[in-house]
Amino acid sequence: MNSCEKIIEDVLTENYGQFYRLAYGYVRNEEDALDIVQESAYKAIKEAEKLKNPAFAKTWIYRIVINTAISQLRKKRETVSLDEAAEIAVNASYGNADLQKALSGLTDEQKTLIRLRFFEDMKLEEIAMVMDENPNTIKSRLYRTLKELQVKMA
Questions:
Q1: Predicted structure pTM score
Q2: Which of 18, 36, 119, 134 could hold 23 in an S-S bridge, CB 3.0 to 4.6 Å?
Q3: pLDDT in tens, 79-95
């Protein structure tokens, strides 16, 4: 095991709960979230040599979890039945039905911004690293997304 693999393994172990919570925020299903985290961990360890700066291992893994979750959602959208879709909507746990409806109308990128900022309580700089964007770009996209949510909920 090389040093990058060890760092990644340590980050995965120390932050497993955060990665699970993020995955669960996307799929709203315990087993699927566990699968996403497991698959993400496998990808991270397998691709360890691609990590350029070990100081950003956590951010790098967040990106892998997000991409894996979005990929799984896209696959599932193609195969989900109407009954399953209704069950997912009923069991959505963002609480407010209007908020849930408004969030469902957002793009994957917008949902990621909202999840990372408000459900994962990340700072704009951290979100920028996860999404590989400039912090000012993230700030303006978040502002526009919040305005869009406000309009949808009005």
A1: 0.68
A2: 36
A3: 544 444 434 444 444 45
